[in-house]
Request: fold
Amino acid sequence: MTAEECEDYCNQSVKEYIASQQQERPLPKDAKLFVILGHYDDLRQELIRRGWHEHTHSCTGAKTDAQKFKSNAFHFMYTTKAKDVFRIKNMAASQHINHFEGTKALTTKVGLTHNMKNLIWEHSIDIDAFFPQSYDLSDTKGDEVKDFQEDFRFCQVVAYLKNCVETLSKKDLAKQLDKVMVALWLCQRRLEVTKEDIFTLKEWDTVYYKGIPDDVHEAMCDVRGGGGMFERQPWFRKVFSTYKESVTEEGAKGAVREMLEKLKIVLGKQYSIIGTKNAWILKPGGKSRGRGITIHSKFENILQAIATSQEDTIWVIMKYIENPLIILNKKFDIRQWVVVTSWRPLRIFYFDECYLRFTSDNYDPARLHNKFMHLTNNCIASQSKNFNQSQIEGNMWHGEQFAGYLAETYQDPNIYKDKIQPQIKQGIIGSILSARDVVVHRENTHEMFGYDFMVDTNLNVWLIEVNSSPSMEHSTHVTERLVKSILTEVPHLVMDCKNGTIFDGDKKCGKFELIYSE
Reply:
């Protein structure tokens, strides 16, 4: 159908539906009809309050019910799943929906991992400032697996050097001076390539590791054991001649500290999230809500986890943040809602409220395999025996509580607004720009995303993932308040503010703030 024919078809469908309802519930001829497929009762109540009428075939989201809905008799549709929108044939341009086509480039772990790496080329945005190193391990034909292997090994070297300074005594360090020399040599070679200011991070690895024997790789993949393991290796002579004066029993820690200071400058924020464990978080690409996630610090364990999974499983691995900010002995993440009302031109709206999700168990970095102290997803945390014992009610905080905590802890009343919020917005804008050329634009469309961020001990903010159709459940008193707030504000943004093209004030549509526009 042509665009005009689709409009006529929609108008006719609405007229026929209104006529069919006259005996059960008479509707005005100009009735505005909405359809909701999912658990969005707060949105339903707001639309009814505005004088809209619900299509009687709306449902709460049961799979069979949603699949049955194929009517064009609506003006506004809000669904949990995008496929329930695009099942409707011959939609008119005037019909408002809540999903764009192609957003999996942003909301899937694999899509986000790949697209974020294009930012430096297309928008000159350095993702290392807000996105942990991440790799698609199902990309066996590309460079992802190889790049991960090299990055894992380099992080292993950095972790070893940090361990030398933080945990090893002078006596213990003296027993492995040869390994210290090799670790310093590896890092120095990388720094020398970096100074050329020619290569990307992955190119540094390629150039640097090309001429190094495999046995060096094997040795540095597992830095355990005593000294003397390299003396008989011909390649070690060059290493020894370079560091024999500085890496002594007396000078080893000083040499290590000096190298770590250099790495801190070169690696920037990524340096701080590399701890002494070299932990990585392995995620199945097709699952949500924390399902199937494991944490590993050994390369062979990562390979084993992948090998024993279903053949078609897509795996993404991300550098685990080893220095998380801890509040009341708990790890946490920040859930931030965002609405995009247009992709061309791009318009991004930031909801001015958020909430924190805490783990159910106290954080212990030595226990990598306890998911209840590492994962904050409510459906995971609620399975822990400690879930109802936390002094944090519902394991959640409103963003205002977090801002208050930071203000008191750091003696700065504006630290959340000045330090945390700008980094959150940077991560949002960067990630959405990364998917911009993939998503299909449509007028009269908006989409809400649930962003998950973590904060480290340096108050650096890290983007972890982006969720489509974020949960709108009243799981706690915190989410009940916030869900009611945002689902009341969405109609204001898309209807009163014409999908964010007019404003109440300075770039404001109610509680939504325009943070990026073209």
